[in-house]
Every structure is written in structure tokens, then in C-alpha cells.
Amino acid sequence: MSEIVDWLRLLQESKTEEFNEWRMANIFEKIDLSGKDLSGKNLSGAYLNGIKCNGANLSNCNLQKANFAQSEVMDSNLENADLTDAIFLYGNLKNTNLANANLSGTNFMWSDMRNCDLSGAKFRKTVLVEAKLQNAKLSSLENQSVYLKFAKME
Fold this sequence. Notes:
By secondary structure, the protein is low in regular secondary structure. The chain has one domain: E3 ubiquitin-protein ligase SopA (Pectate Lyase C-like, 3 Solenoid), CATH 2.160.20. The chain is built from 2 helices and 4 strands. The strands form 2 sheets. Strands 1-3 form a two-stranded parallel ribbon. A two-stranded parallel ribbon has the order 2-4. The chain starts with a helix and ends in a 7-residue tail after the last strand. The mean pLDDT is 93.
């Protein structure tokens, strides 16, 4: 049980480099951040691929260049988070609040983003190729730099 406390403590203390070292040494360890409150933390560059993170509070977090590939981040709060250049390939983000988040350069290719709140989010070179966006709350994408090829909007 102490290993779980150690990696969680590293994230809570924004010690991303140490967390990533632990993560690489324990790549098959299942990480579950469901229901955790990490709001306002600096987790930039964190290797969070394959994690379960349902109902978590990551609002106002610095998640620049974080890797969430193949992660489950449903019903979570990422409002005002900075997700610049983050990776969410094959991510499950259903019902997640991304309002006013910075999604510049974020890659959501093949992600499930149904029912997400993306109102007021900043899009610049954001990749939404083949993303499922049905019932997502989107501000106008007019004049935005977004790659939407084969995205499912309805």
C-alpha cells in the first residue's frame, strides 16, 4: 500500500519528474485517481497514460504536455486547465468539463468526448480527428484552428 501513497503524494506535491521516474519503473501498475482533488497542481509532462481518473478535480491544473493516452477521464472537472500539447489519444472523456481550458495543440484523436463541456475553451492546432463529439457543448469553432477530419459531431 505504501507504493500507492508514494505515487499519489508525488502528484499531490507536483513532483512530476519523480512521478515519471516511478511510472517508468512501474509501467504496468494500475493508477486510479478517481474522485481525487488535484486542482491547481502543476502536473506538466506527467505520464498519466492508461490511468483511471473518473470524477477527479483537475481544474486550474497545469497539464501542459501531459500524456493521457488511453486514459479514462470521465465525469471529471478540467475547467480552466492548461492542456497545451497534451495527448489524449483513444481517451474516454465522456461528460467531462473542459470549459475555458487551453486546448492549444492538444491531441484528442480517436477520443470519446460525448457530452463534454468545451464552452469557452481555447482551440489552436487542436486535433479532434475521428473524435466522438456528440452532444458536446462547443462555442463556435469559426476562425479556430481545429483539425476535425471524420469527427462525429451529431
